[in-house]
Description:
The complex is a heterodimer of chains A (about 160) and B (about 400). Chain A has a single domain, classed as Nuclear Transport Factor 2, Chain: A (Roll), CATH 3.10.450.50. A six-stranded mixed β-sheet of chain A has the order 2-1-6-5-4-3. In chain A, β5 and β6 (about 130-140) form a beta hairpin. With about 160 residues, chain A is α+β, with helices and mostly antiparallel strands. The longest helix of chain A is centred in the N-terminal third of the chain and has 19 residues, at about 5-20. Chain A is built from three helices and six strands. Chain A is globular, with a radius of gyration of 16 Å. Chain A is about 25% helix and about 50% strand. By secondary structure, chain B is an alpha+beta fold. Chain B folds into two domains: about 45-155, Rieske Iron-sulfur Protein (3-layer Sandwich), CATH 2.102.10; about 175-385, Alpha-Beta Complex (Naphthalene 1,2-dioxygenase Alpha Subunit, Chain A, domain 1), CATH 3.90.380. Chain B contains eleven helices and 19 strands. Chain B has helices spanning about 5-10, 25, 30-40, 125-130, 165-170, 195-205, 215-220, 315-330, 335-350, 370-385, 395-400; strands at about 20, 45-50, 55-60, 70-75, 80-85, 100, 105, 110-115, 120, 140-150, 150-155, 185-195, 230-235, 240, 270-275, 280-285, 285-295, 300-310, 355-360. In chain B, the strands form four sheets. Chain B has a seven-stranded antiparallel β-sheet, with no helix packed on it. A seven-stranded antiparallel β-sheet of chain B has the order 12-18-17-16-15-14-13. In chain B, β10 (about 140-150) and β11 form a beta hairpin. The interface between A and B is medium-sized, with 31 and 37 residues.
Amino acid sequence: MTVDQRHALTELVCRSCMTLDERAFGAYLELCDPAYRYRITAYSPEIRKEMTWLEHDKAGMQTLFTNLPRHNSDQSPLTRHVTVYTVTQDDANRRARVVSALQVFKTTLDGGETELYAVGKIEDDIALGDDGPKLLDRNVRLQTRMLGIGYHIPF
Amino acid sequence: MSRNSNEWKERPQFPQTHYVSTEIYTSEQIFREEQAKVFGKVWIIACHESELVNPYDFRTFNHPSGAPLIVIRGEDNTVRSFYNICPHRGNTLLYDPVGNAKRITCIFHAWSFNAKGDCIDISRAKQGYQDRYECKDAGLREVKTSIGYGGFVWVNVDDDCCSLQEYIGDAMGLLDENLNMPLEVFHYHKAVVDTNYKLWHDTNSEFYHDYMHYFNRITGMIQPGYFDRKYTGYPNGHASVGSMSIKYDAYEGSQARGVGWPGLAPGGWVLIDIFPGMTFNLRTSVLRMDTAIPLGPNKLLIEFRGLGLKSDTPEQRAERIRDHNTIWGPFGRNLHEDLLGVKGQGLAMREGTDSQWVIHGREENMTIHDEGGMRHFYAEWSRRMGRPASEPMHAAASTQAA
């Protein structure tokens, strides 16, 4: 893998966070392959089970974003901070796997106080097409399970 | 017309049963009394039997009366509960929320206990206590425990309490057919919200707030049968809400549902509120169970569980999980809105804001937008507390005057 290739993959992951931070949902979906699949998962030590808290394909994500203005939601902005840990490229299958650390911060609208809201990892499978890398499968693997009143926009 | 200070403080022009003073949500004194008079006397759900599959499996639970508990399945398969407090130096016995402990050994001085609460070893007992103190004096404090109504593990810290069956009475009748098979918890999360536990139970006791939920407006409120759902009150403050047929495909993105729930009509929805803070909510293919654990007058911990059938295939379970989390998960459409609502109440009613009254005055023949469910709750609350919810400090004032 060249430095440029790794840079492109890192930038894709970062752009996905920036677009969600900016609620630029169209721009976010442009980063995704048509076969995109998104999940938020966590392990519950209390019930000793894996949990899937959100699961959508690309069309489902589009619908989720479309429905957002129809719901009452916490409008506190989120800031997603990622650090790419590992990048593994599978040239034969034109795929890459990127594992990143994720921290999500929430900032109040009134006063601008920021708190750490969630930590976890993002596990991305990325399609390496002729028109550049696209998100193919994302698992937001949360360590944090207490999310207060919750949130309508995916991490 | 807006109101001035005096007008704002005037009692609502309703019977006293139809409004409450917001002091019941903010007073530290009332909260401490509730811990003793309400939570210290009633049956509370600590966990589900599927969380204690094998002998010696345990769960810890912070009881809303204040006591930390261990719930543990014994070698004889009986589930028992004890204070999670070492009788020696008061240390926490089991630190993890879940585990398997054939022998419960305090990390501090290695005193050990079995799953029946018996003390089975005091390290260097003879040398230290001679014959003055021994294992028979050092058993754990046992708490009454009963399993029922879908396999939930209920606890009651009052040694003189009535049985669980007497406490529930007929309140769970609407779910009789739906909970008579083994269930399994597949979802668990907690939320801490700056609000009062009664406000959360209110949200689970009235449907007028469906105006807050886009999902419920289009799948329920504008559909036939919605306004026919009725509240039924039961002794001890419990209440149920009858079913209707929800039109889930009215919400864009909803998927066709094939799994359903035994005994529940397609699109059905049954809700049962158990005093003082538990709600059975059966909808689509999922049973949701809320347990409210007040941490203070304006701080609430809620445990959320989602359950399916133990006999589920992986495909069925996956559909239940999707159904649950689309609406009720931490990223679900409705749960966030409900929690946003009670957080807003907590913000507006916190001590010192000059909030005065909460009105429960809607009367619609006990149908879905009637506020009779809350009136029923506060009648029981007032009885147990010895304080009318509309004038809660009256009893205290009388006592002080005397």
